[in-house]
């Protein structure tokens, strides 16, 4: 891009483009990097600087950028039929995608509602829960249970079950029908408590909450297998499986929010059964469904619960829910093509093979004094940084921004969630590229330590040899 083109783009961006999670105090002041092209695991900014895409877009870039096969499939579908009315018609790509997702899903999740993104997928699941209990003559069974640090989306129902307070403070989304359990990060358990005891307590908390509310009143429990935007929180071993058993015992639907973990992030099409040993009543997914090439999501519903409110059990009801772009044929073709590439190139197998190395390299950063904790699973990870005695939200946000800025200067994009550097690189990443990514992150953290010592007078400590 020419300098004039860069300035014009940034002016238009500042003046007109409201970004997600816009800091209103800074609105109209940010000169954001302009990404001009991308290839493989790399993106290129307005100065043609190559950057490793550490967060994989927004947890979604599975097969890598610049796939000609994807471009051809999308273009062919646009020319053949760019749109069909999903309320009255169908198309081959939409039907084929629904069938393929049903084939890959665990258990009997073989009914598929195609949506536009993860938020609309979760909204679909929550609305189906309401519909399900109303059709069954149980209008009182509407209480929902979620967890602290959960993130389930930005639309209204999703925001109600999101457990990240700072994402909700300025919106009226509190609901008397939604209840939150305690955080499940075992590393932050009380002193003297074993991981097993911590898991027991968190599982017991779910059961006690159901009993407190009354099982006849509790409709569903929603949980991400890994709490992604909450800071890559991996639950204790056995936690999800035991929660699933409690839900089944008390006739509470279990919704697994796999918007991040599906389509290979943990080395499988879906993580629920293969990684965590559960067969949910519903799964929501998006992001990696099309590898980020087009917007799309899906809500998968089990045959058991679908049968209870359809056919002779429909009670005259219509599931009056949908979107103009439900089952969009072009997005469906993109999803099918992405899945073809994942299968043909054995990307799931690659993820399972390379993930231990990725996690090992991340853990090496734990020796840096600024690093408080490293956690992750599969090809998703988090490096959390802090300074003892100086921690505050303002300080931690500045800390994350400093690391982010150094990373970008050195050739790496990270996603700072306050003081947490979050990674979910394209699934095609190689050993050599992981080494490059970790080397840049380490240097960026060390440079940030120097900043804090020189600018703030904070001595953090020496790095272990």
Shape: globular
Looking at CATH, the homologous superfamily of the largest domain is Type I PLP-dependent aspartate aminotransferase-like (Major domain)
The CATH topology label of the largest domain is Aspartate Aminotransferase, domain 2
Radius of gyration: 23 Å
Task: Supply the number of structural domains.
Answer: 2
How many beta-strand elements? 15
Low-confidence residue ranges? none
Condensed summary:
The protein is α/β, with parallel strands linked by helices and 465 residues long. The protein has helices at 3-16, 56-59, 68-80, 92-104, 118-135, 156-160, 195-213, 239-249, 271-276, 303-307, 329-344, 347-363, 393-410, 431-456; strands spanning 37-39, 42-44, 50-53, 111-115, 143-147, 178-181, 218-223, 253-257, 282-285, 297-301, 371-377, 380-385, 412-413, 415-417, 420-423.
Structure, described:
With 465 residues, the protein is an alpha/beta fold. The protein has two domains: 142 residues, Aspartate Aminotransferase, domain 1 (Alpha-Beta Complex), CATH 3.90.1150; 276 residues, Aspartate Aminotransferase, domain 2 (3-Layer(aba) Sandwich), CATH 3.40.640. The protein has 14 helices and 15 strands. Strands 4-10-9-8-7-5-6 form a seven-stranded mixed sheet, with helices on both faces. The chain has a four-stranded mixed sheet with strand order 1-2-3-13. β7, α8 and β8 form a beta-alpha-beta unit. α4 packs across α11, α12 packs parallel to α14 and α13 crosses α14. It is globular, with a radius of gyration of 23 Å. The protein starts with a helix and ends in a 9-residue tail after the last helix. The mean pLDDT is 95.
């Amino acid at each position: 891009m020419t300098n004039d083109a860069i300035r014009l783009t940034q002016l238009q961006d500042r003046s007109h483009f409201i970004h997600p999670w816009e800091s209103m105090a800074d609105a109209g002041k940010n000169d954001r990097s302009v990404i001009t092209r991308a290839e493989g695991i790399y993106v290129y900014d307005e100065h043609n600087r190559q950057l490793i895409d550490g967060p994989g877009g927004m947890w979604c870039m599975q097969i890598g950028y610049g796939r000609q096969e994807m471009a051809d499939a999308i273009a062919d579908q646009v020319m053949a039929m760019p749109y069909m009315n999903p309320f009255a018609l169908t198309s081959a790509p939409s039907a084929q995608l629904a069938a393929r997702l049903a084939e890959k899903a665990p258990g009997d999740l073989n009914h598929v509602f195609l949506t536009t993104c993860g938020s609309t997928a979760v909204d679909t699941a929550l609305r189906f829960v309401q519909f399900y209990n109303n059709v069954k003559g149980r209008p009182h069974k509407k209480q929902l249970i979620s967890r602290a640090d959960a993130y389930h989306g930005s639309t209204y129902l999703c925001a109600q079950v999101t457990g990240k307070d700072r994402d909700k403070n300025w919106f009226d989304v509190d609901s008397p029908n939604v209840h939150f359990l305690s955080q499940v990060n075992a590393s932050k358990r009380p002193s003297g408590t074993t991981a097993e005891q911590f898991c027991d307590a968190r599982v017991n908390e779910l059961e006690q909450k159901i009993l407190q509310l009354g099982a006849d009143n509790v409709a569903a429990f929603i949980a991400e297998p890994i709490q992604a935007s909450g800071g890559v929180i991996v639950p204790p071993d056995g936690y999800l499986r035991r929660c699933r058993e409690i839900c089944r015992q008390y006739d509470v639907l279990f919704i697994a929010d796999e918007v991040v973990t599906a389509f290979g992030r943990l080395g499988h099409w879906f993580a629920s059964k293969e990684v965590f040993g559960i067969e949910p009543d519903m799964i929501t997914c998006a992001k990696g469904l099309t590898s980020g090439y087009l917007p799309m999501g899906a809500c998968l519903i089990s045959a058991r619960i679908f049968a209870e409110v359809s056919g002779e059990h429909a009670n005259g009801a219509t599931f009056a829910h949908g979107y103009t772009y439900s089952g969009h044929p072009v997005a469906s073709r993109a999803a099918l093509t992405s899945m073809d590439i994942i299968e043909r190139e054995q990307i799931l197998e690659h993820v399972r093979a390379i993930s231990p190395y990725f996690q090992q390299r991340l853990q090496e950063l734990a020796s840096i004094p600024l690093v408080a904790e490293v956690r992750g699973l599969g090809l998703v990870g988090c490096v959390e940084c802090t300074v003892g005695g100086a921690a505050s939200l303002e300080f931690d946000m500045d800390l994350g921004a400093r690391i982010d800025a150094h990373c970008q200067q050195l050739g790496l994009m990270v996603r700072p969630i306050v003081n947490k550097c979050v990674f979910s690189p394209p699934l095609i990443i190689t050993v050599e590229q992981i080494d490059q990514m970790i080397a840049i992150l380490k240097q960026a953290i060390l440079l940030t330590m120097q900043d804090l010592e020189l600018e703030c007078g904070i001595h953090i400590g020496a790095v272990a040899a």
